[in-house]
């Protein structure tokens, strides 16, 4: 089947389109949720939820993008995106294999769900790190990454696990940049064109008790 009529193109478009939408939804509220933790500690859970959803979504976008029929694995935009978001693979692997991680005789010294940090909205020289989980001896926490050369924070929100830092601003920017390439590419590749409809059909199903119908 020719790529221009291959329904896999449409399926990949659907998968990517809604993944990008989910990514934007979780990212746009992430920083404000983190900032609010200082006043209301219960907001830690919504913040962590957004963080790990973003990890999962970026991983999903990476997987779908490499399954697109006709898109060369050597494509420059694809390679740039995969390189910029490779940290998502490390985080995904870690959380998916948490059983093995927690079964090791020498446990990692960082918190199970990572160390969540964010930059102060009023004072750009200050950042915070939430102490997540049990505060046992030897536990280590990593904060926001500061670029000494550029003299600025790498990201306003960071989730650190061991030697890795998931810098959400950078990952989001790289993913959205890839979106600006890949969705138009998919649209132009499919012969009949792909259109996004704002109206979503919703079907209603009613379960009735047969006795009431007699």
Keywords, please?
single chain, 214 residues, alpha+beta, four-stranded antiparallel beta sheet, two-stranded antiparallel sheet, 6 strands, globular
Overall description:
With 214 residues, the protein is an alpha+beta fold. It has one domain (3-114, 166-213). The protein is 47% helix and 10% strand. It is built from eight helices and six strands. It has helices at 7-28, 30-35, 44-65, 76-84, 87-96, 98-103, 168-189, 210-213, and strands at residues 115-119, 127-130, 146-147, 152-153, 157-161, 164-167. The strands form two sheets. A four-stranded antiparallel β-sheet has the order 2-1-5-6. Strands 3-4 form a two-stranded antiparallel sheet. Strand 1 and strand 2 (127-130) form a beta hairpin. The radius of gyration is 21 Å and the shape is globular. The mean pLDDT is 87.
Write down the overall mean pLDDT.
87
Count helical runs: 8
Determine Rg (CA atoms, Å).
21 Å
The arrangement of helices and strands along the chain is HHHHHHEEEEEEHH
- Give me the side-by-side strand order of the main sheet: 2-1-5-6
Shape: globular
Oligomer: single chain
Distance between the termini: 52 Å
How many domains, as an integer?
Answer: 1
Residue windows where pLDDT falls under 50 for at least 5 positions: none
* Count of distinct strands: 6
- Strand-pairing-aware structural class: alpha+beta
Query: What share of residues is helical?
Result: 40-55%
Largest pleated sheet: 4 strands, antiparallel
Strand content: 5-15%
